[in-house]
């Protein structure tokens, strides 16, 4: 007697899938305070793993000391970047009287342009500006309290990231043993392949972002310096730092760069700065990004953009940062599980298959 395997209708399976996605999304949103620093800690731990292993093998340090020293090197590097940016910002503070006069002159020119273009006299413009300023000042206490709370939460968030990074580095063998133990022995090789590829690709991705950031910042500083933009180093650092935010970073860098140039220069320099930032982004998106980062995480642009939007909706700015690494992890898993390979193809598309075909043709 043979028994037939019951397969649920398509609409039932679709409904269960959608319910599962909704429940998972709800849990991810609720657990943001835990998962957000935990995933950042995982990324930093993967990045620092070779350094920690080096201290253990070559310097014979215990794991706790090697993990702590690796994190301290990361803190020193980030602190150096922040010091460089802060040092450039302090230059603006020293030139504040001159900047104030420049801004006043620019505002007067803007008033004249608005009056000439929209036929709104300067008195009416100033009444509107003063009313807006009074409203902002009346809510100054609430704004100050909100700002203080946001800064405190951000500092605590960074502390949690460092703590999670330390514990993941310290207990890394325990975690890997647990992951391989959960699955059957038949799947052990696949699980280890997934773990190794996640470490390799994410480490290359993060290093690629850092290299891309340095190259973009260097190009921007050189171009701004050659065209005579004041605070060229600060603007170049802004362009390089915000460049690591996918898609949205270019608009933020463009806004900040044009505002600083508008306050320190003239309209011609402001337009030149805007064109320069857009040009640098075009070069980066078409040449640097595919060469440095695109070869590490092979996600097609449509899925990447959708993932960034979903990440921002779920976790805000940190979700935008984490969307690409999380999708890269998902793709690695999908590509190695037979029933999930179509989803891996959807995330990557024809790009990697064309690359594999090219490599095969070269070997032949």
Note the beta-strand portion: under 5%
Q: In sequence order, what are the helices and strands, one letter per element? A: HHHHHHHHHHHHHHH
Kindly name the structural category: mainly alpha
Low-confidence stretches: 139-151
Q: Percent helix among the residues?
A: over 70%
Quantity of strands, as a count: 0
Radius of gyration over all CA atoms, rounded: 26 Å
How would you state the average pLDDT, rounded?
Answer: 77
| Shape, per Cα inertia axes | globular
N- to C-terminal distance: 52 Å
> How many helical elements?
15
Main sheet? Answer: none
Structure description:
The chain is mainly α and 364 residues long. The chain has a domain of 151 residues. 86% of the residues lie in helices and 0% in strands. The chain is built from 15 helices and no strands. Helix 7 crosses helix 8 and helix 10 runs antiparallel to helix 11. About 4% of the residues have low confidence.
Write the layout of secondary structure elements.
Elements: H1 10-30, H2 32-57, H3 63-94, H4 96-118, H5 122-138, H6 140-170, H7 172-182, H8 188-226, H9 232-242, H10 249-264, H11 267-294, H12 301-315, H13 317-336, H14 341-348, H15 350-363
Give a quick rundown of the structure.
This protein is 86% helix and 0% strand.
């Amino acid at each position: 007697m043979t028994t037939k395997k019951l397969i649920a209708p398509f609409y039932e399976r679709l409904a269960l899938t959608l319910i599962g996605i909704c429940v998972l999304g709800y849990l991810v949103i609720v657990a943001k305070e835990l998962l957000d620093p935990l995933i950042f800690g995982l990324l930093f731990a993967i990045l620092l793993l070779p350094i920690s292993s080096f201290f253990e093998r070559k310097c014979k340090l215990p794991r706790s000391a090697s993990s702590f020293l690796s994190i301290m090197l990361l803190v020193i590097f980030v602190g150096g970047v922040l010091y460089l940016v802060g040092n450039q910002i302090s230059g603006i503070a020293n030139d504040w009287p001159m900047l104030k006069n420049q801004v006043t002159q620019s505002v007067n020119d803007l008033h004249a342009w608005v009056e000439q273009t929209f036929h709104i006299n300067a008195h009416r413009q100033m009444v509107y500006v003063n009313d807006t300023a009074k409203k902002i000042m009346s809510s100054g206490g609430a704004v100050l309290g909100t700002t203080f709370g946001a800064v405190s939460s951000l500092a605590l968030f960074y502390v949690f990231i460092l703590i999670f990074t330390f514990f993941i580095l310290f207990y890394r063998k325990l975690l890997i043993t647990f992951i391989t133990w959960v699955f059957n022995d038949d799947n052990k090789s696949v699980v280890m392949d997934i773990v190794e590829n996640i470490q390799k690709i994410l480490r290359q991705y993060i290093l690629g972002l850092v290299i891309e950031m340095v190259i973009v910042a260097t190009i921007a500083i050189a171009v701004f310096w050659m065209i005579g933009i004041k605070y060229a180093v600060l603007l170049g650092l802004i362009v390089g730092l915000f460049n690591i935010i996918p898609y949205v970073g270019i608009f933020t860098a463009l806004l900040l760069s044009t505002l600083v140039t508008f306050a320190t220069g003239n309209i011609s320099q402001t337009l030149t700065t805007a064109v320069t930032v857009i040009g640098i982004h075009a070069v980066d998106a078409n040449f640097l990004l595919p060469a440095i980062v695109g070869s590490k995480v092979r996600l097609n642009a449509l899925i990447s953009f959708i993932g960034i939007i979903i990440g921002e909706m779920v976790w805000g700015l940190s979700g935008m940062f984490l969307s690409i690494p999380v999708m890269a992890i998902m793709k690695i898993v999908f590509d190695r599980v037979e029933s999930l390979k179509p989803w891996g193809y959807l995330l990557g598309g024809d790009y990697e298959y064309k690359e594999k075909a090219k490599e095969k043709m070269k070997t032949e």
